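Board notes, transcribed. Complex of a protein with zinc ion.
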Amino acid sequence: MSKVDIFRQELSRKVCRNCGKPIPQSRINGLCAQCEDLELFQKVKVYVNENNVTEEEVAEHFNIPLRKVHQWIHQYDLGYNK
Ligand SMILES: [Zn+2]
């Protein structure tokens, strides 16, 4: 590979805007899967704290699998109304 080719490759490389990890070109929001998850989790956390909602409502509101909501709530103890 010539130097120009390497340079072109560097230019076209996409990295996560949060952690700087290389990500596929196809990712449209500029975040790697891990950071995207984390960002979503922060939103869920705020939403759960501000609203008296069920896990089902959270899943529906954010369009995420119920299993994931369930996992987060139990894993991180979101101050959820038990
Ligand atoms: Zn990242």
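DSSP finds four helices and two strands in the chain. The longest strand covers residues 14-15.
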